[in-house]
Amino acid sequence: MSTPKRRNGWGTRNVLVAIGATAILVYSIGPFIWLFIASITPEATADFDTPYLSDRTVTYLPTDPSFANYYALFQNVPFELYFRNSAIIATGNMVLTLIVASLGAYGFVRFRFAGRSSFLVAMLVAYTIPSVVLLVPLLVIFRNVGLNNTHLGMILAEATHAAPFVLLLMINYFSTLPKELEEAAQVDGAGRIKTLWRIVIPLSLPGLVAGGLLAFIMSWNNFLFAFLLTSTTQVKTLPVIMRQFALGEPAVWGVSAAGALLSTLPVALIFLLFQRMLMSGLAAGAVKG
Amino acid sequence: MSVQAATMTPARPKRRKRVDYLPYVLISPIGLLLLAITVYPAIEAVYLSMTNASLLRLAKAQFIGLRNFVRMTADPIFLDGLWRTLRWDVAVVGIELLIALPIALFLNMTFRYRGFVRAAVMVPYITPPAVVGLVFCFMFDGNYGVVNDILVRLGILDSYVAWLSDPTASFWVVVTAMVWYGQPLMALILLASLQTIPGELYEAAAVDGAGKLSQFWHITLPHIIPTILFLVLLRTIWMSNHIDMIFVMTTGGPGFSNYTEAVYSFQLTNEFEIGYASAVAVVLAIILMTCSAFYVRHLAKNVLAGSSS
């Protein structure tokens, strides 16, 4: 982090910066603080059978904070099952996406072949097909081939968005790698697959980590496919449950808040640990080519 | 070995006679995957849009030609949906820009803990949209929502408002949630654009006696205008087919007040009317993909140019 420039009137400037930073922090983090307060405020009455009713009042500082809501969450909702489903699907999506997208990206960046630009444009067009259009046919096709209500089906459905995104991200990343190293390895007698394995993959680790984790986050956060393509508890993911909570089922806000926080925790941790890599990756996959 | 090295060198005018299969092997997994999970389903969607298919009696689906599309022209939910979609796009993208630009300008300054603030700014964007929807439902709840409490304490409201039960209020609450979730990406990309402006420009302007506002108007803004236009286009396309936030918070209601075309298609699907749902989705997709053709061309050009260096 760079030190502040001590210019004339830096005192006023610092005050203004502090005000600005506080405003931004309150805006960005505030809802989470409120969520946390709600999650440690015990419920007056915890009724898991009657939806749309809650005796809650607005409490800013709970007089007797406790983690009772977290216990209640695991006791009354199969939360660990949903959590596990989200983890399986997001991990599967990450692995699948990373493999196919990085192979493809390497092919596009390092080789000139007949049909190269047509194939690339075709994949970009596939990327722009709105998921609204894909929802119904995927539902019908998955029913026919028995992929509805399976983890694999969910992994495939979420790859519709994640795979082209990571492809773009990795194309962008591979383009920044000097190809001289690869050429040197090949002059030294390494085969092309060996070069990919020994030189390209290790050099691209930051890009691969960013692509993989963003695919994980996308899949973890996905609501639409999860809502439409799953109907049994065995494959339902956390976002589907979040909507149920939002509808007031159960209307135990403290418990919902606990669930919401725990649902966000994995992606928040991933982001905080890898934020530099992820931020450049987000920009690359979304806008730049 | 030198032959293999030669294949690595791009833009060789003379190609070898033998076709090199490796690049095709490399791109075929993602090619086949996208073929199976996007291209084939998209074609299936076009077919379904010309049937009266219902999820409850899928086997009895009949081909009805363009009747679904004719039905749309007299369907008030669809016709009003065009306006609702536009209103949603303009509100979300406009307000996102109004919030993201100051944040990006702020983060472009040098100050202590900048890295920390920048990380905090990104937090909403990695939060699951369904959680965002839940939190904003909670905060805007009519009985125990914190927003009501604060507004009443400040004397702005006399009594609690049931925000999500009112057509207009619920729209703005969902927009508020969506903006909170979406603005970090805009801020991040605007910041990246701001950081490419050479500092000398500002120094020269300062020497010439240009004030901060004048510098912003004559140096900063012209530089970031292309990025802004690009973001507006991209976000408008994304928002037009966004469903999550509206559906999680309001299920499109009250009434049909938050039925954008995307939400309408999704709701028809939930009501098993998948033929008509597909038709609505196909119309939306044609409009959006026409808009994104520009984006695709730009991307393809970038990718093809960038990787040949």
Automatic annotation (TrEMBL), chain A:
GO terms for cellular component: plasma membrane. The keyword Transport applies. It is a multi-pass membrane protein. Residues 83-274 form the ABC transmembrane type-1 domain. It comes from the Bacteria. It is found in: Cell membrane. The chain crosses the membrane at residues 15-37, 87-109, 121-142, 154-174, 195-220, 251-274. GO terms for biological process: transmembrane transport. Coiled coil: none annotated. Keywords: Cell membrane, Membrane, Transmembrane, Transmembrane helix, Transport. Pfam families: BPD_transp_1. The keyword Membrane applies. Its main location: membrane. SUPFAM superfamilies: MetI-like. InterPro entries: BP-dep_ABC_trans_perm, MetI-like, MetI-like_sf. Belongs to the binding-protein-dependent transport system permease family. This is Carbohydrate ABC transporter permease.
From TrEMBL, chain B:
GO terms for cellular component: plasma membrane. It is a multi-pass membrane protein. Its main location: membrane. It comes from the Bacteria. Keywords: Cell membrane, Membrane, Transmembrane, Transmembrane helix, Transport. The keyword Cell membrane applies. It is found in: Cell membrane. The chain crosses the membrane at residues 21-43, 88-107, 119-141, 169-194, 215-238, 274-296. Gene3D superfamilies: MetI-like (1.10.3720.10). CDD domains: TM_PBP2. InterPro entries: MetI-like (IPR000515), MetI-like_sf (IPR035906). Residues 82-295 form the ABC transmembrane type-1 domain. GO terms for biological process: transmembrane transport. Belongs to the binding-protein-dependent transport system permease family. PANTHER family: BLR7065 PROTEIN, SPERMIDINE_PUTRESCINE TRANSPORT SYSTEM PERMEASE PROTEIN. This is Sugar ABC transporter permease.
